[in-house]
Design goal:
With 252 residues, the chain is of the alpha/beta class. The chain has helices at 16-24, 44-49, 66-76, 96-107, 156-162, 173-184, 209-225, 234-250, and strands at 3-9, 31-37, 57-60, 81-84, 89-91, 111-119, 127-131, 153-155, 189-200. Helix content is 36%, strand content 21%. It is globular and about 50 Å long. The N and C termini lie far apart (36 Å).
Length: 252
């Protein structure tokens, strides 16, 4: 089985090399690596080009935001499984994709996900927040739970059947997509109880109070457009989940 990994980036010369190296160092060999750049004006393009044909496909052009770039990568991909690694993120070790693909091959599931570590943007060895997930059961989304999207690997047939990222959502399209796949269409899931990805703190959805509020509003709207019902109060509970994740990190 082939896995397609998509990295989207714009003006991120400081971390793009780390993301690329974490893909290229994987022990699993059947990888299609696609990098979608949003017409960077710093040194990002030069860094990407330095890897030559180690990157399967590289496109640099203007886009309509991060989710548009992700959709471009999905449409270009040819792998049996698709994963998305942002330019601020990197895989925990060289065996992550092997572990993911073993789960797909052994369990015959639609998607695989695992745990995520938020780390310092200046020193990624410093753990700031631990997103420890759990096996899925019906009703978890209604309690404010969802997988960490950077750890969410999906059978490409699911994208073909149920669609890609909805560009009407500017911050929470990843949440809407997982809600659509998991709750509305009830895809089968496998949880890997191990860290798959390290993510540097920051990002569009939690970079400011305004964006946090906007992201929660988009999350609520995603239920409506998928004809699903939820108590809006769950979005007031989400900050408490994050606090617990920060507390866990204090004991590392």
């Amino acid at each position: 089985m082939k896995i397609s990994i998509i990295t989207v980036v714009r003006n991120n010369e400081s971390t793009i090399r780390c993301a690329i190296e974490s893909v290229l160092s994987q022990s699993y060999q059947t990888i299609e690596y696609i990098v979608i750049d949003g017409a960077s004006t710093d040194g990002t393009i030069e860094i990407i080009n330095s890897y030559g044909d180690k990157i399967t496909q590289f496109i640099s052009e203007q886009d309509n935001g991060i989710y548009d770039a992700m959709n471009k990568g999905i449409n270009l991909s040819t792998g049996d499984v698709i994963g998305i690694l942002n330019s601020d993120d990197f895989y925990e070790n060289e065996h992550v994709l092997k572990d993911v693909m073993d789960a797909f091959q052994n369990k015959k599931v639609d998607a695989v996900y695992g745990d995520l570590l938020y780390v310092s943007s200046k020193d990624p060895s410093v753990i700031k927040r631990i997103w420890e997930s759990r096996s899925y059961s019906d009703g978890l989304f209604q309690k404010g739970w969802h997988p960490a999207h950077p750890t969410f690997f999906v059978n490409r047939e699911i994208y073909n059947r149920f669609g890609v990222f909805n560009l009407d959502f500017k911050i929470a399209a990843d949440y809407e997509l997982m809600l659509r796949f998991i709750v509305k269409y009830k895809i089968t899931l496998e949880y890997l109880p191990k860290t798959l990805v390290r993510m540097r703190l920051g990002g569009e959805s939690n970079g400011s109070i305004f964006n946090i509020v906007k992201a929660n509003r988009e999350c609520l709207r995603s239920w409506g457009i998928n004809d699903l019902r939820v108590n809006p109060l769950i979005f007031f509970a989400k900050p408490f989940y994050k606090i617990l994740q920060y507390v866990k990190a204090l004991w590392v």
